[in-house]
Amino acid sequence: MAAPPKPARILVVDDDVGLLVLMAETLKAEGHSVDTAGSGTAALAWLGEKTADLMLLDLKMRDIGGATLLDRLKQKTPPVPFLVVTGQGDEKAAVEMMKQGALDYVMKDTGLLDLLPGVVRRALDMVERDRALAAAEAEGRRLEREMVEVAEGERRRIGEDLHDGLGQQLTAIELVCTALKEDASRKLPELARGLERMGKMLREAISQTRFLARGLVPISDDPDALRIGLAELAEHISSIGRLHCRLDCPDPVNLKDRFTAAHLYRIAQEGVNNVIKHSEAKEVTIRLVQSGGVLELQISDNGRGLPTSKSGGLGMEVMKHRASMIGGELTVASKRGHGVTVTCVLPVFR
Question: Which of 87, 105, 244, 350 has the maximum number of C-beta atoms within 10 A of its C-beta?
């Protein structure tokens, strides 16, 4: 048998003692757990030690006005959901408070005690819906992160298999070819030349296998692995010969979260690929800088820039999604004929 739902805890704040008691008793009769505060100072003290599911707040109190009290409460995490209790003639002030987050308001008139239970019930329903939605979103983010981690783990496994399995076999074959070439060079020069070509092809295959392995496993457990991985990416892009790619990272970046590092690497990888495919650039720079509690990754090129009617395709959307996954923000700046700059900024903690 399921346990009965826990009563909502409500804090009623009003410096009219008589009305304070009446509102509290009315809500207790509805099954709520009710605490009271006869001043703004008392409310702050109570909230400094306890939490409420809902607060009823008088807009006009003698020591601290309702608006001032709310300014102080905005620093509290999580924020306290609240209703406004206001006198006749203060409807505009109540509406203004709703713009600042009040769920509803109720007037201090003869119908107050009759209306109060229904207003509070609706407000608590809204609070519960918001909490359920926040919990569902948090669970969705957790599952998405878990799926990405599984995919990254599988990439890592494939990369390690490429490096330790296929790469090792290709290296062994190259050694055999070298030995055969040395034997054949004395008696069968034509065969030696064929083996030389085969050895060259094997060296290229080994190089490609290693790069594929690094691409699938771009980030190790080293806190400076992101900088190392980006340096290897820049070196490989430059070796292709289509454009010059350089890494600008003047200081080591201490990023211990491998999940975040992997996403930043993929953002840089996708950004550089976009430059190669679309920009007609001659140079691209990957910049990685950590200052205080902020990490900035920037990919900039000297290409033709984005068309004025276009802000990027699927690749750009993927980069934005990756940035949001790690709590970062991705922006794109482009000036026609002066290249594109993609910037990802996120808070980090040492």
Answer: 105
